[in-house]
Write a structure and sequence with these properties.
Layout lengths: L1 H5 L3 H17 L4 H10 L9
Length: 49
């Protein structure tokens, strides 16, 4: 909780403080690993404008 209340201010701080437990409970800890895996398998394409 320290991060979400120390380095931000205003609405962001209020939001994080109010919804901290819900955010942590819904956090997918494998997201980054899955993203990198799919990227290496060419299942995710580069963003091009």
């Amino acid at each position: 909780m320290k991060i979400c209340t120390s380095i931000v201010s205003g609405y962001c701080r209020e939001y994080w403080y109010k919804f901290y437990d819900e955010i942590i409970n819904n956090y997918n800890s494998t997201f980054v690993d899955n993203f990198n895996k799919f990227l290496s398998e060419d299942k995710i394409k580069d963003f091009v404008r």
